[in-house]
Write a structure and sequence with these properties.
Low-confidence stretches: none
Largest sheet: 5 strands, antiparallel
Oligomer: single chain
CATH class of the largest domain: Alpha Beta
Shape: elongated
CATH topology of the largest domain: Beta-Lactamase
Number of helices: 15
Number of strands: 17
Structural class: alpha+beta
Strand content: 15-25%
Radius of gyration: 48 Å
Bound molecules: adenosine-5'-diphosphate
Strand order of the largest sheet: 2-1-5-4-3
């Protein structure tokens, strides 16, 4: 029976014609005059034609109704929406009193009701639904639709208690088949007195089920793809957070703890450890694990697996204990350790994949942190070496300088002019070496954090003038024009006065060295944005753009022959920059080849500036 209004109407008309035909049939059994009988026969013939055409109409109506409900299918790819549409359409097409749609769970093969009208999932388990369950089972097994018009008369179901004890029902059930696989069933039923389904109704339901199954499967595939994409995006987000945390600090202990925490939190593991091999062939050691408290210590045979079988692996453990999962940390083709976790339940495939990805990232971070540690160690060793060497050299150098000066000053007797000349050469070279030792010793002390600055409030102009007076004779020798542009009001800075003198000496010495005879050297000082700014401006050889990028690096000296003519080690600017930064200032420059350079630095005015 179809509840499409138009078809229902036609169905009624067919019923009425049937009743009329029966009545005429009864009348025909009476003795009738010839003419009346012939009229009666004509009327019955006419009635039959009318019935046939009405039945054709009903068939066409069914198709129209099917077309109408099928049209809306396939528009949406949202599984819930599609299921609701299908359920609505089934009720509309069959006019069933109640119905539901079940889908087969692809993993467990269970049947789950996913849409229903006037019936609950739990009701399906009730005794009166036993016959329904049998019908559904037979549809799943045979793959064919079932029509149990009167279950009591149907030999397949009549033995069922439920048919006898509970209200008789007219049942229809059709398989949902997509790509040759049964993905579920559509079930509808009616109380026998409220409507009996016909074969035509079942055909219609079967046809509709074919279309519905495709729409449902499409939505399922789409939802699955959508979910897979969403979970991949969320995994990538997680991995990017892990990368950020792992690379935030190049500290090995930090990297190991972050790795362990992510392993535990990422898969809700019970416990986690990280083991590392000290070098390629060494046995792995636990380097990070749960500390203190009631912890399950990791047994040696589990750790040994890292080298026995270095692949991601699930290690089923002795009875009663949870399983371990081991993800090796490998870097540049070598196994450097592993992440190991235990889980109260089984570790799923996707958990294993997560741990393997975490291990890939952690291995790189561990290796970086180890390299950094090694570099730090080498750096420390170098600084210590430089510190010892400079200390040891300083003493004999002072003595060479002292005695050379004594001889040069003829304190210990007369010397020839040539001897005096040689002593000058010795004196100059000792001076160069002393400069080098002083710069190297500063660098090593700064690097080891052992430089002691004596901060004080100072008047910057005083220290600039003091420096210039000691350099004046050098500038005069090259006939260089010294200009000072210093304000009258005291410029107060918070700095180490002797280091300020050292910085100004370095910059003015460079201006002197790299400015030809007769050039100008200007020193300006002024207050700006809460800092004191000092500029040393020269009209010297300038620095090429390419060489500007190397300025301030240790031992950098320009290739220019004018520079190479001058004495120097290429350490002055590096020391100057570090001193300024330690004092909380900044340093910079601008330069044009053949026009000159300006070097500037700033100093803080208060003690609480960074
Ligand atoms: P040094 O002067 O002992 O070589 P520095 O570290 O003071 O070492 O300077 C490094 C290099 O920077 C110099 O060798 C030179 O090439 C360049 N330089 C520094 N100051 C100037 C300047 N005022 N004009 C031109 N070049 C300069």
């Amino acid at each position: 029976m179809l509840y499409n209004a138009h078809i229902m109407e036609k169905d009624h008309q067919v019923d009425t014609l049937n009743e009329l035909d029966n009545a005429l049939d009864q009348l025909g059994k009476q003795t009738l005059p010839i003419q009346t009988r012939s009229a009666l026969n004509n009327a019955r013939k006419r009635l039959k034609q009318l019935k046939r055409s009405l039945e054709q109409d009903v068939g066409a109506g069914r198709l129209a109704a099917l077309y109408q409900v099928s049209q809306s299918l396939g528009v949406s790819l949202n599984l819930d929406e599609v299921l609701t549409q299908v359920m609505d359409a089934v009720i509309q097409l069959t006019g069933a009193e109640r119905g539901f749609l079940t889908l087969v769970d692809s993993e467990s093969s269970d049947l789950n009701i996913v849409a229903a009208r006037n019936i609950q999932q739990e009701n399906l388990q009730r005794k009166d639904m036993e016959i329904s369950r049998t019908v559904i089972q037979s549809v799943i097994e045979s793959g064919k639709g079932v029509l149990a018009t009167d279950a009591q008369d149907d030999p397949r179901f009549s033995k069922q208690e439920s048919v006898i004890f509970y209200a008789l029902r007219s049942i229809m059930c059709a398989p949902l088949r997509a790509r040759g696989r049964i993905i579920g069933v559509i079930y509808v039923d009616n109380r026998a007195q409220s409507g009996i389904f016909t074969k035509d109704d079942l055909n219609l339901l079967n046809t509709f089920a074919t279309q519905a199954a495709v729409a449902i499967e499409n939505a399922q595939l789409y939802t699955r793809a959508d979910q897979a994409l969403a979970s991949r995006v969320s995994e990538l987000e997680t991995l990017s957070r892990i990368d950020q945390e792992l690379n935030a600090r190049l500290d090995l202990d930090h990297v190991l703890e972050i790795t362990r925490q992510w392993a535990i939190n990422g898969i809700e593991a019970a416990q986690g450890w990280v083991a590392l091999c000290d070098d390629e062939d060494a046995a792995p050691n636990l380097v990070s694990g749960p500390q203190g408290g009631d912890v399950h210590e990791l047994e040696d045979w589990v750790i040994a697996k890292i080298q026995e079988h270095p692949v991601p692996q699930l290690i089923p453990t002795k009875e009663g204990n949870p399983a371990y999962f081991l993800a090796p940390l490998s870097h540049a083709g070598k196994i450097i350790g592993a992440i190991i976790v235990t889980h109260p339940q089984t570790i799923t495939e996707s958990d294993q994949q997560f741990l393997a990805r975490l291990a890939g990232r952690a291995a790189a971070a561990v290796e970086n942190a180890r390299l950094y540690e090694a570099i730090e160690f080498a750096n420390e060793a170098k600084s210590q070496f430089v510190s010892i060497v400079t200390h040891e050299l300083r003493i004999p150098l002072t003595s060479i300088k002292g005695y050379t000066d004594l001889i040069r000053q003829r304190v210990v007797g007369e010397i020839t002019d040539q001897q005096a000349e040689f002593l000058d050469v010795i004196g100059n070279n000792v001076g160069r070496m002393a400069d080098l030792i002083s710069d190297l010793s500063d660098i090593s002390r700064i690097e080891r954090g052992k430089i002691n600055l004596r901060f004080d409030f100072i008047t910057v102009q005083n220290h600039i003038l003091e420096t210039l007076s000691s350099l004046r004779h050098k500038l005069d020798e090259k006939s260089q024009n010294l200009v000072t542009d210093l304000p009258e009001d005291a410029l107060q800075a918070y700095a180490d006065p002797s280091r300020v003198v050292q910085v100004v000496t370095n910059l003015v010495s460079n201006a002197w060295k790299y400015t030809p005879e007769g050039g100008d050297i200007t020193i300006r000082a002024f207050a700006k944005n809460g800092h004191i700014c000092v500029e040393v401006i020269d009209t010297g050889i300038g620095i090429s753009e390419e060489e500007q990028t190397k300025l301030f690096t240790q031992f950098f000296r320009s290739e220019s022959p004018i520079v190479r003519e001058q004495t120097g080690w290429g350490l002055g600017l590096n020391v100057t920059q570090r001193l300024i930064e330690i004092m909380g200032g900044e340093i910079g420059f601008s330069s044009q080849v053949d026009e000159g350079s300006t070097f500037w630095f700033t100093l803080p005015t208060t003690s609480n500036q960074e």
